[in-house]
Amino acid sequence: MNPSSGSQQLTLLYSRTQIRRRVTELAKTIAADGPGRGLVVVGVLNGAVVFLADLLRALRQDVHLGFVRVSSYGASAESSGAPVIQIPNDLPLVGEDVLIVEDILDTGLSMTLLCEAIQARSPASVRICVLIDKRQRRLYRVKADYVGFELLSDFVVGYGMDYAERYRSLPEIFTLDIEDPECESDDDPNPD
Ligand code: IMP
Ligand code: MG
Asked: What SS3 class is residue 74?
């Protein structure tokens, strides 16, 4: 099946095998860094869910699992303003070792705000794991401790990541080119 449709063109970037290998490596590194128990894993909805599910199974250790929401993008490839951070009140953070799991670190705004909100609850430590790091697009000073893949500026979908809520269920990671003369003056959905 060709998952491309209409004026949106998908190109395979990482296969299932490449993703599985990298996620396994990440889990080993995270486990080696400890702590062996009591880790609070904070997944960022919705994009990190598929990555987190695989990472957790590769991690093979007891964790406390919780989710936060960072909303900003809506149905657009570009941010639409300041993200709103939602952290459930029953998520244990005070004095805990926290691992944030996110799909993509782009400008860094979402992660900066999320880290501030988590730090405000006085955790013992906070580490950041992202599937994809677009380091060259960074506008805010935030650094991931664990990175699956580094990318330049491509817009990516699949493996949980979306464009306007599409493509999340694809098991591979694709780059997305949008050819829409009404919305875009060129083919790059995520221009620098
Ligand atoms: P930031 O706040 O600019 O770092 O944006 C990070 C968020 O933007 C990610 O959590 C994603 O939800 C979204 N995002 C950034 N780049 C992409 C992409 O290439 N595909 C899908 N979502 C993206
Ligand atoms: Mg996100």
From this structure: coil
What's 135's DSSP letter? Answer: G
Q: What is the pLDDT along the chain (192 residues), one digit of tens a residue?
A: 456 555 889 999 999 999 999 999 999 999 999 887 789 999 999 999 999 999 999 999 999 999 999 986 554 555 556 889 999 999 999 999 999 999 999 999 999 999 999 999 999 999 999 999 999 999 999 999 999 999 998 999 999 999 999 999 999 999 999 876 555 444 444 433
Report the CATH number at residue 74.
3.40.50.2020
* Domain coverage including residue 38: 16-150
Q: Is residue 68 part of a domain?
A: yes
- Would you call 188 a catalytic residue per the annotation? no
Q: Which ligand is nearest to the CA of 49?
A: 2
Structural domains of the chain, count? 1
Q: What are phi and psi of 50, to 5 degrees?
A: -70, -45
Q: Which atom of ligand 1 is nearest to the CA of 47?
A: 12
Ligand 1 pocket test target in 73, 111, 112, 165 with most atoms within 8 Å of CB: 73
Q: Does residue 84 form part of some domain?
A: yes
Residue 177 CA to ligand 1 centre (angstroms): 15
Q: Would you say residue 178 lies in a domain? A: no
Strand partners, 8: 5, 178
Contact 67, 99 (CB under 8 A): no
Using DSSP's 3-state secondary structure scheme, residue 78 falls into coil
